[in-house]
Amino acid sequence: MRGREVGMTAEGTAQPGGLAFPAGPPTPVWEVITGYTRYWLVVAALDLGVFEELAGGPRRLGELADATGVAAGRLAVVLDYLVSVGLLTTTGDRCFALTPAARGYLLRDAPLSMVEMVRHSPGPRTAWPELSATLRRGRPTRSVEDDAGLFYGRLAAASAPTQQAVARATAALLPDPGPGALVLDLGAGAAPWAIGMLLAWPRARALAVDLPTIIPFAEAAAAEHGVADRLDVLPGSYLDAVLPIGEAAVVTIGHVIGLQSADLAKALLLRARGALRPGGFVVISDYFRPAEPPTARDLEGSLPQSMALTILANTNEAEVIELPTLLSWLAEVGLVPWTTRQLLPGQLVVVATEPGQAPPP
């Protein structure tokens, strides 16, 4: 018996001869399922070198099959899927090319490369199958904090290209701090904030503070970007290292404000304020949960929720806080917001200072 042609209206009701979906088509559920396969699709494409093979220009399916060592029929499934998600383009003769997004973010030498972010941002792969148990227990079986140097070091290096760009854009908002001005980078990681500001301010100097196992990432990055002579390092915790008092033109706190309890977060902000020279700025960059919960589908707006869930899945105490919470902590330590900008999707940069500073131009 031949089946009848299935059709759906835009409202999700059945056309004549089609299936009826009283709840509307199951598109949101399929998006969840295919989200998992899309992630591993991109990881596999990176592992196979698909994007790098296309860096020089379009290539045919057979050429890519030879270059990657994958049978053409199997590789075609990968390439067609990459086309459907907007990372490759193709012509009718099975010739493939990079889209601007793939060229901008999925090549290793791209200025804003996110190749390593794809690999490391979700955290250890073992954390996700046990998420329901982690939520009930309140902590994962194994936290990334158990080997903080290894995980945060890799993540810091992975996020450095995009965070350095955000740092340079933030520096452009601030007044030039003058010759010899100090940028103090707390929880520096690979020091993208310190390095970005040193590149924006050629007469400034920086001090990067982080755990001894992570500081080598900052030193390597400083050498790579030609600022090693202006960046000093201080191995140790940003919560108890001996910091300069009243010297810093800018103190940066990038993606670490939620990595400890509220009391320790406020202690960190108090230390940052104590390090400021008169008229200095504290720059906090992070993901913040919206004060009002979402009321509709919003994939870009879901980035903070995604980050919040990733942190719950992988850490013991860290959390993604709400922006009003941060603002209340700033007020407690005597700082006021100077400007707040979204320079990357989902990520906010909050610049705070002492009361009385002129607003940004």
TrEMBL record:
Residues 183-313 form the O-methyltransferase C-terminal domain. GO terms for molecular function: O-methyltransferase activity; protein dimerization activity. InterPro entries: COMT-like, COMT_C, COMT_dimerisation, SAM-dependent_MTases_sf, WH-like_DNA-bd_sf, WH_DNA-bd_sf. Keywords: Methyltransferase, S-adenosyl-L-methionine, Transferase. Residues 30-106 form the O-methyltransferase dimerisation domain. PROSITE patterns: SAM_OMT_II (PS51683). It holds the Pfam family Dimerisation. GO terms for biological process: methylation. PANTHER family: O-METHYLTRANSFERASE CICE, PUTATIVE (AFU_ORTHOLOGUE AFUA_4G14580)-RELATED. This is Methyltransferase. It comes from Pseudofrankia asymbiotica. The lineage of its organism: Bacteria, Bacillati, Actinomycetota, Actinomycetes, Frankiales.
